[in-house]
Amino acid sequence: MLEVVASIANLRERLLPMRRAGKSIGLVPTMGALHAGHRRLIERARQQNSAVVVSIFVNPLQFDRNEDLARYPRPLDDDLTCCRELHVDFVFTPSAAEMYPHEQLAIVDVPQLSEHLCGAHRPGHFRGVATVVMKLFQIVQPERAYFGEKDAQQLAIIQRMVEDLNLPLTIVPVATVREPDGLALSSRNRHLNEEQRQLAAILPTALQAARARIQSGERSAHVIQTAVAPLFDRHPGLRLEYFSLVDPQTLAPVSYIDRPVLIAAALWIGSTRLIDNLTVSPIENGQPPLSSPRTSTATEAPPAKLRSP
Predict the structure, then answer these.
(1) Fewer CB within 10 A of the terminal residue: the chain, N end or C end?
(2) Looking at domain 3-174, which of 3.40.50.620, 3.40.50.800, 3.90.470.10, 3.65.10.10 is its CATH number?
(3) Alpha helix positions (H), 201-278
(4) What is the pLDDT along the chain (309 residues), one digit of tens a residue?
């Protein structure tokens, strides 16, 4: 039966007997407004753990714009219904005062992985993400935690934080869930009107176009970026924030593609910001070996992620 817990002390008390009994605990950190992508995370956690904790907390530390924080959707009743359907054991719904009872002086920062791409346009965002995730790890003490690959930069930062700080848990990446037209599911999609929703399909279309060029033999990152740019110029309601090709191992921008690359983009549609990415390998011996998701543990190096120019 689902239990909704708002207190850190109460959640720790409820989880302690499970931990003493040797039962595994899986954590799915969210900000609510759950959709099919979150459901996939929860389903994976349910398959792999004795108990599942879903946190629902709109974290003020990671918002660089107050208006974005204010308009973030908070359909808690719908979220709890979703969690009941998926047999979640605990939903942790702390208030901001519970998570930050006083000014947060201790901050987690992973600068080399957060200074580019989204981090270049959202100062302090990933410090807020890493800090709240670290707090959730300390509160829940899970064996495994689940994150979507759509937020590739976030995933890379959390994986590196776990590795560098020797945290005793496994980060499980889960593949992006998409609409039939390819648009990645996101809580922000609900801000799009009908016309904007149709325009949003340009984002996955551009990523696929870049992939096709790589797999047809194009090796210049600049040529690929130039080729897809007109897709974003066809409507005044679109503003491309970045479209980058990066090295999966160093997370640095590439100019010549002779190994797997991660293509990442951020697009504004009106006042809504969407992100997406995919990983591609150039054709070798007639075969296009696409990279596959992998599970990272605290002792593994982080998998291929992104860094922009």
Answers:
(1) N
(2) 3.40.50.620
(3) 202-215, 221-228
(4) 999 999 999 999 999 999 999 999 999 999 999 999 999 999 999 999 999 999 999 999 999 888 889 889 999 999 999 999 999 999 999 999 999 999 999 999 998 888 888 998 899 999 999 999 999 999 999 999 999 999 999 999 999 999 999 999 999 999 999 999 999 999 999 999 999 999 999 999 999 999 999 999 999 999 999 999 999 998 888 999 999 998 776 677 889 999 999 999 999 999 999 999 999 998 754 544 433 333 333 333 333 333 333
Residue 38 annotated in active site: yes
Distance CA 179, CA 192 (A): 14
The SS3 of residue 167 is coil
Q: What is the CATH number assigned to the segment(s) 187-292?
A: 3.30.1300.10
CA distances from 211 to 71, 181, 216, 227 (A): 34, 16, 9, 12
d(CA 242, CA 101): 37
Dist. CA 240–CA 40, nearest whole Å: 29
pTM of structure: 0.89
In which residue are the tokens 């950190």 written?
Answer: 29
Bridge-based pairing state of the strands 3-5 and 170-174: unpaired
Residue 255 DSSP label: S
| 275 DSSP β-pair partners | 266
CA atoms within 13 A on the CB side of 66: 0
Query: What φ, ψ does residue 284 adopt, rounded to 5°?
Result: -130, 125
Give dist(CA 139, CA 159) in Å, integer: 18
